[in-house]
Amino acid sequence: MSKSRAKKKQRRRARAGGSPQRAVPRASPGPEAPGHRGRPQREARRADARITDPARKPSRLEIRDGVPRPDAIWAPFPLTEIGMGAGLVLFLIGFAGAPVLLLTGVAVLVVVVAELCLREHFAGFRSHSIMLAMLPVCTVHVAVVVLADVAWRGPLALAGDLAIAGALAWWLQQRFRVVHGRARRRAT
Fold this sequence. Notes:
Layout: H1 3-15, H2 41-52, E1 63-64, E2 67-68, H3 79-95, H4 99-122, H5 129-148, H6 155-187
Antiparallel strand pairs: 1-2
């Protein structure tokens, strides 16, 4: 790491109230602790190992702003990655000339990415407010155009979609701030 990046990190930590030295966050409470909120033991052990293992420095992909990346329910099995790979293959085959496979690939990718974004967003790991707000708005808009009325387009439709997406994004961002604050307090 360059000296300027190290100094920048020290300044950021100092502004956040932390010490300039690298602080190791303490482990989250165990199942018998009063702060435990029903998290499964397996997930708690894995999160604690990622945060507090002194022999291994966690990457920025595993811990962001002191909050560990949330594990999926199927954690040891790479279902999300398999779904992304399958969706990408279907999309590419469909792009070559099979519209049904193209739409199937897009649907698989949307479901897998939405699940990952929801998990990260509501665990306080990373905010995906705009994408999560646009997903239901776009889905409803496409359903209205395809199933009900093809004339639902133009400036009025765009203004309505943007107003709904904006309100939903604002609500999602507020929820993220609350959850992120709790997750940071629990990690430190």
